[in-house]
Amino acid sequence: MQRMPIATQLTDLTHDDLVRLYAYPATLTAPWIRVNFVTSIDGAVSIDGRSGGLGTPADKTVFRLLRDLADVVLVGAGTARAENYGAAHTDQRLRTRLYHHGFGGDPDGAAPRIAVVTASAALDPTSRLFTDTGARPIVITTADAPAERKRLLTDAGGEIVEAGESSCTVTAIRDALAARGLPRVLCEGGPALFGELLTAHAVDELCLTTSPLLVGGTERRIAVSPNATATPMNCRHLLVDSDGTVLTRWERAHTQS
């Protein structure tokens, strides 16, 4: 039986300690999908439709680090719209240093790309996703999505990827990211995309922050899907901040392929 790690105080760790705790596997032959979520103690994923209200200083520190380590940030269209996504802005020098130490990052310090999953290509070409200065966004959509929408998003600077006929399949999404040399995947939601990844047995790990808040309301859980899928996970670490924030990292027991 997997033994639960002893909680570590976040204040006892240096930034380099955190890098080692959250580094992707050194050698990847296929995309490694890491999912990152923050919830309240009672399981809410947002307050008034946005996750920002749940954020704590510790969560924001890890959020930034996970982006620094990733090659691509994968997100559903609903979350991209609700959170007003723009380009990922990361620490250029840190990204270069991470790369040379084999932890991720980029040799030139370039920021990770944003990849938005939208079966209907329903994104606003004037939104921050396309107007914010940064890496060219990837729009993962379908062959059936309206051609005019895809043209407008291309003209706005997006790279269009068709990952299915009428719906985006997880296999096609993984293949598209692999083909672009983006194996370190950071999925930032939302719950529906997380549920699809779970159903396809494609989630390699979950980084979960529990914010010291009770929220109530009708907010959804972090993953939703038509059918329940039990996926055994091993806890790799458990960190606690002085304000009560709990940071955990869970990894699926599996063999890389």
What report would you give on this structure?
This protein has helices spanning 15-22, 57-69, 77-82, 92-100, 128-131, 147-155, 170-179, 191-199; strands at 8-9, 32-40, 72-76, 113-117, 138-141, 159-162, 184-187, 205-211, 233-240, 246-252. It is α/β, with parallel strands linked by helices. It has a 10-stranded mixed β-sheet with strand order 1-9-10-8-2-7-3-4-5-6, with helices on both faces. The radius of gyration is 18 Å and the shape is globular. The mean pLDDT is 93.
Largest sheet: 10 strands, mixed
Strand order of the largest sheet: 1-9-10-8-2-7-3-4-5-6
Helix content: 25-40%
End-to-end Cα distance, whole Å, is 24 Å
Q: Give me the count of strands.
A: 10
N-to-C series of helices and strands:
EHEHEHHEHEHEHEHEEE
Mean of pLDDT = 93
- What is the approximate shape? globular
Give the amount of beta strand, in percent: 15-25%
Rg: 18 Å
Name the structural class.
alpha/beta
Low-confidence regions = none
What count of helical segments does DSSP give?
8
In a few lines, what is going on in this structure?
With 257 residues, the protein is α/β, with parallel strands linked by helices.
